[in-house]
Amino acid sequence: MAWDPDHIDFISDYCDRWCERCPLTHKCAAFARESDPDEIDEHSEAVERAMEDLRVELSLPEPPERTWVEEILNAPEPTEAERQELNREFDERRARIRSDPMMTAASEYSIDAYTWLKLYGDLTRTRAAALLVEHGDSPESAVVRMEVEGVIEALDVVRWDSMLIAAKLRRALDGKVDDEEAFGPDPAQTDWNGSAKLTLILAERSEAGWRLIARWAPETDIATQLANTLAALRVDVDRAFPMARRFIRPGFDEPSW
Questions:
Q1: 103-246: what fold?
Q2: pLDDT category, 1, cuts 50, 70, 90?
């Protein structure tokens, strides 16, 4: 967002969108837009006026006309045959991504995680809270409290990530089909590598969450299986996107702001 030079470009494209936990919302245009869209418009208009005043003051030439915009707006509508061909290519592409083994595993994980949380999530929280009451002020209560807080945090994490993992992986696979050009000289800096890296981050933290949950929850075997599914998915994503971990996520992987 040009209206605020302090915002970090593309920061919201490679985050988990958990704004309430993010230390960089003050650097995020997406957060500002969602928080107060009217303020965004006001600042944008103010910046445009300021830039125009500066151009006049410095006697700078008029900005070139963006003829390419007019060309796009005035382009003829595609013919029925062209439209059908585009639809066919889109359907083939979507089917190819949907049938990818990684995508299948991620989608099935999302369903299984949602089902487990619906059946046992609240029960696990209740069991953990009851254990705190049971120990009261005993010498081991501090250790138990840390463990219980860890379980509750893990439940929140796996719930938040359960749908994001498949969504971010789909974006990575979809982008890789296009073989997008790198953002710069580093071939790791592509959108699909960034999406793959975020997929890995989400999978890793959810895997750790499930392994902790499995020590406390009913249906321990299922929680362990979910963790194992994510572990296998990480291996596959690392193999399919060998440069993903090198991707520098704007803001998050850069020097402290």
A1: Four Helix Bundle (Hemerythrin (Met), subunit A) (1.20.120)
A2: very low
